Amino acid sequence: MSRFKRVAVYCGSSNDAKPEFYAAAWEIGQVLAGRGIGIVYGGGSVGMMGAVADAALDAGGEVIGVIPGKLWELELGHANLTDMFVVDSMHARKSMMMHLADAFIALPGGYGTLEELFEAVTWAQLNYHRKPVGLLNVEGYFDHLVRFVHHACDEKFVRPELRNLMVVHTEVGKLVEQLEAAQIPALESWLKKK
Q1: Residues 66, 97: contact at Cβ < 8 Å?
Q2: What is the pLDDT of residues 47-59, one digit of tens each?
Q3: What is the pLDDT of residues 1-40, one digit of tens each?
Q4: Residue 144: count of CB within 10 angstroms of its CB
Q5: Which of the residues 54, 84, 100, 153 could staple to 158 if both were Cys, CB 3.0 to 4.6 A apart?
Q6: DSSP string spanning 90-126?
Q7: 116, 117, 191 from 83: Cα distances, Å
C-alpha cells in the first residue's frame, strides 16, 4: 500500500510536444491509478495535462483538477474529472495543489511546469511541507536542469545536503518507488551548518 493518497503532477499543456512525452504522461496516469494513488493536476484538457487525466480516469483512478477561473473561461478545463476546483489565481492553484498532494512529480513542460516544480522544491527545502518531489526525465528532457542544480551546489547556492532534493528517474514505476522511500531533510539539520 502506498504512503501517498494523491500525487500532484506538473506537466505541459502544449499540443505540439513529442509523442514520447504524451506516452509518458499517459503512463504516469495509468501507473498512479493502478497503485490506487489519486492525481492532482492543473485541470486542463489539453496537451500532456489532458493525457495524464484521461489515462488515470481510463484506469478508474481519482483525478482532481485545480484551474484558475481565467483558464476555465477559455474552456481549457477538463469536463469529466472526479472533482474540479476553479480558483481565483495561479497562486491559489499552486497552494491548493500542494495542500491536496502527498508528493509531486514533474514531467516535461515549460515555464509554468518549472515554476510549479521549483516552488514545491523550495517549500520542501524550507520544510513548509515534507513531501517528496520527483522529475520524470523523459528523453533526457531534464538533463540540463539536473546539471544546473549540481552546478548551483558546486557554486554554494544549493547546500550539499539538498543536492538530491529532487528525485530523478527515467521510469515511472522506479520514480514512484524512490519517492515512496524519500525523506526531506529537517531544516535544522542543515540551516545552521557553516
Answers
A1: yes
A2: 999 999 999 999 9
A3: 789 999 999 999 888 999 999 999 999 999 999 999 999 9
A4: 9
A5: 153
A6: HHHHHHHHHHH-SEEEE-S--HHHHHHHHHHHHHHHT
A7: 21, 23, 39
Nearest by Cα to 72 from 89, 47, 51? 89
Contact 96, 64 (CB under 8 A): no
CA distance 68 to 35: 29
In contact, 108 and 144? CB cutoff 8 Å: no
Sign of CA dihedral 168, 169, 170, 176: negative
Count CB neighbours of 77 within 10 A: 20
- In the chain, the domains with their CATH numbers are 6-181 (3.40.50.450)
Which residues lie below 8 Å from residue 47, measured CB to CB, with a gap of 6+? 11, 12, 13, 14, 15, 17
- Give residues with Cβ within 8 angstroms of 148, minimum separation 6: none
C-alpha cell at 165: 532534493
CA dist 10 and 63 (Å) reads 13
pLDDT score of 34 = 97
**Look-up of cell digits 501517498:** 4
Res 79 pLDDT > 80: yes
